[in-house]
Specification:
- The protein is α+β, with helices and mostly antiparallel strands.
- It folds into 2 domains: 8-118, Phosphorylase Kinase, domain 1 (2-Layer Sandwich), CATH 3.30.200; 131-332, Aminoglycoside 3'-phosphotransferase, Chain: A, domain 2 (Alpha-Beta Complex), CATH 3.90.1200.10.
- Helix content is 43%, strand content 15%.
- The chain has 10 helices and 11 strands.
- A hairpin with a 2-residue loop joins strand 9 (224-227) and strand 10.
- Helix 3 (131-150) crosses helix 7, helix 5 packs across helix 9 and helix 5 (185-205) crosses helix 10 (308-332).
- The protein is globular and about 60 Å long.
- 36% of the residues are buried.
């Protein structure tokens, strides 16, 4: 996969790519673009100079999703928007009916798939008072799951499967947790025991009906925008097939060690049950999915060690993962 390049020259080339591609979406080439996020995908805020309308331009990283997979993501987003009352970011549909354009520029070695979304005003949830947010998040997650259970994807619908093979197999999507930055011998042994325990538990859990389907798979607080209309869900880039309860685990990404985690779980479950049943057995397995996501995120840091996020957080995150694993194994192993 192409390395994470934040050199001034590369960023200037990406700006040129973005400026070029917005015309393919029908916007004026003089429209103002502003880089707002560069992690794997690159996101720009775009203001159309013709009418002042604002959009988010997502420039996809290469070698991750195929054209068909991106189309599948957008098709599901539109279906959720039309067939439920969940507020989601909507892709801009061009005059010819397409939603994906290809961007290129000198200095960018690989052409990029690009998607434009209608801008959503609001703020990310305040981490100081998340209990009420998680009640709402439980409700909208259950609504999305209800849609997933009833919706029939079109032919050639392609998305990742976040299953044990894709997480722990020979060629995992996000790499191997064994390469975690700062991992000690004791930590390696601890996380190895955790992996074995998670596999055993989820192999049993997976056999039960109504627990696996198409999910968002990245409901972190950075992908929830709060405004007067309520929570808005953005960034379906990781959506795929997995356990429904995995969506809760993604909602607490990077904050899995919060002291009020039990309260957040209870709030989310309360909101979820207003829409769809959730058994006591399922509720008890939520910590399993939190640790599953934690291991997966540890692997992501290892395979993306050239990103600012990994360089800033990875070693502490590895150590924290080992501590959480030890606590989990004591309680549930």
């Amino acid at each position: 996969m192409e390395s994470f390049n934040t050199s001034k020259e590369h960023l200037k080339s990406l700006d040129v790519l973005a400026q070029n591609v917005i015309t393919k979406f029908g916007l004026s080439g003089n429209s103002r673009i502003q880089l707002i996020n560069y992690s794997e995908n690159i996101t720009y805020k775009v203001q159309n100079s013709d009418n002042g309308e604002i959009y988010a331009l997502r420039v996809h990283r290469p070698e991750y999703h195929s054209l068909e997979a991106i189309e599948s993501e957008l098709i599901w987003m539109l279906a959720v928007s039309k067939e439920t009352d969940v507020l989601v970011s909507k892709p801009l549909i061009c005059m010819d009916g397409t939603m994906i354009q290809i961007g290129s520029a000198e200095g960018v070695t690989t052409d990029r798939y690009c998607v434009m979304f209608h801008w959503i005003n609001g703020e990310f949830p305040n981490e100081e008072n998340l209990s009420s947010v998680f009640i709402l998040l439980g409700e909208i997650t259950a609504k999305m799951h209800a849609h997933s259970r009833s919706w029939t994807p079109p032919r050639k619908f392609i998305r990742h499967s976040w299953d044990l093979e894709s997480i722990f197999g020979i060629n995992p999507i996000w790499g191997h947790w064994q390469d975690a930055i700062g991992l000690t011998k004791d930590g390696f042994n601890n996380l190895s025991k955790l992996e074995t325990t998670l596999k055993n538990k989820l192999n049993l859990f997976e056999d039960t009906r109504d627990r696996i389907g198409l999910i968002h798979a990245d409901l972190s607080l950075n992908n929830i925008i709060m405004n007067n209309n309520g929570p808005n869900v953005i960034d379906f880039d990781d959506c795929g097939f997995s356990w429904y309860l995995y969506d809760f685990a993604t909602a607490v990404t990077l904050i899995e060690d919060r002291k009020d985690m039990d309260e957040l779980i209870a709030s989310w479950v309360e909101g979820y049950r207003t829409i769809h049943p959730l058994s006591i057995e399922e509720e008890k397995e939520i910590p399993t999915f939190i640790l599953l996501r934690r291991l997966l995120q540890t692997a992501w840091f290892a395979s993306h060690n050239d990103t600012n996020l990994a360089q800033t957080l990875a070693e502490d995150y590895t150590n924290g993962s080992c501590a959480l694993a030890e606590d989990y194994l004591t309680k549930y192993g």
